[in-house]
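Example 3.2
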Amino acid sequence: MKNDEQHKSDFLFDKVNYKILLIGIAVIALGFILMSGGGSDDPKVWNDEIFSFRRIRLAPTVVLIGFGITIYSIFKNPKK
């Protein structure tokens, strides 16, 4: 009986941990998507859009929140 209990838990995390981890990865990807763009095809033309609120403040904050969610999913103990 003791042997069956040891082989029952093959995965490192539980299902809840993996769901939270995927949510964190999605939030990180959203942050990088928000950070993209704003450049110009012509290098001689200046575009102030690269210094917008979305790219300077919002996107890095979303990425950091995503990393926090990912770290939480690793440390979460589902047995408590």
